[in-house]
Amino acid sequence: MDTGVTVVGSGQVGGVPDVLRVTLGVEVMAPDVASAVARVGERTEAVVAALRAHGIEGSRLSTSAVNVFQHYREPGTDVAYQAQHTIQVESKDLTGFGALLNAAVDAAGNSLTMNGLQFDIEDKSELLVQARELAFQQARAKAEHLARLSGFSLGSVTAIAETQNHFPIRRAYNASKAAGFDAAINVTPGDSSVEVSLEVHFAWA
């Protein structure tokens, strides 16, 4: 068994968000699977075209889920099928949420759903460097304190394990079956942060 001390240090650094991510969906009901799939496909294409016309690049539009299932109905009523297509939308325009949402509503109407939005930092590399440095400083300070308490001298580092977390600012909205939005809807981004935890093993000198 290695002698020494194992400690955990953490460092958290905040930054200003530079990307807005919105999760939109299109949801339709139909009496058969083929119709449900066809209708959700048409309306999804309309939403994507509207978003691209609004300035969203194709590389910032992606499908995150597609579902088709039988919708529960009371016994004795006609069977219906529900189709859903969920789209992840990214925008660098942090203040254009209302207009972007209106573009999607105009394209899909009451078929549009929205699962929420988040503000995030696209490139976290520099924040991670800073958080890692803070985490290591905290780990060393803990180890030095424990070494003094136990009457040992701190030696070299023999092992490090890292865990990363990031905390984007999230806003949740339920736009399901809504039929129009005020273009003046504004959302305000706050700080987003990343956190690094380091488990560090120091040998005794």
TrEMBL record:
Protein name: Secreted protein
Record organism: Kribbella jejuensis
A family per Pfam: SIMPL
GO BP terms, alphabetized: DNA damage response
InterPro entries: 26kDa_periplasmic_antigen, SIMPL/DUF541
